[in-house]
Design brief:
two-stranded antiparallel sheet, 4 helices, alpha+beta, 5 strands, 142 residues, single chain
């Protein structure tokens, strides 16, 4: 496998000493046995990185699932997407509690308290999702 230093493209043709895309002879040869399964080599400013593309594609989707439904008091969907099951279910339970107290409770809970609780849970959820995604990214790049 040949990874070009100029354009960053990866060529899996054996025995190449130049890049077929840009013609540069600057690059590195690597052996396929050093690449973990599911990871793809990539050039970065620091050198060769191995990334798991399937895992990396989940990061923006998890952010959207944390933010957009969170505006409507549905929390934890981003956590569930990246496999943080306990945290995701905990945030979903808080969504159910807010829904219950807002619409179905026989107690007269002031709507200002529910709004403040909802905003706090939303902010805590986004902060926790950010920290989880940071760890998720670090495990996706070697």
């Amino acid at each position: 496998m040949f990874i070009c230093d100029e354009c960053g493209k990866v060529t899996k043709t054996p025995g190449l000493c130049f890049c077929p895309y840009c013609g540069s002879e600057k690059g590195k040869k690597t052996d396929d046995k050093f690449v973990p399964e599911g990871y793809v080599p990539m050039m970065s400013p620091k050198g060769i990185m191995f990334t798991n593309q399937k895992r990396l594609r989940k990061i923006p989707i998890a952010l959207l699932l944390g933010f957009i439904p969170g505006l409507m008091d549905v929390f934890g969907l981003g956590h569930l997407l990246i496999g943080k099951w306990f945290r995701g279910l905990l945030f979903l339970a808080s969504s159910a509690a807010i829904l219950y107290f807002r619409y179905f409770s026989e107690y007269q809970v002031d709507s200002m308290y529910i709004l403040v609780a909802s905003l706090l849970i939303f902010m805590v959820q986004l902060l926790d999702l950010y920290n989880c995604l940071k760890d998720y990214f670090n495990k996706s790049v070697i």
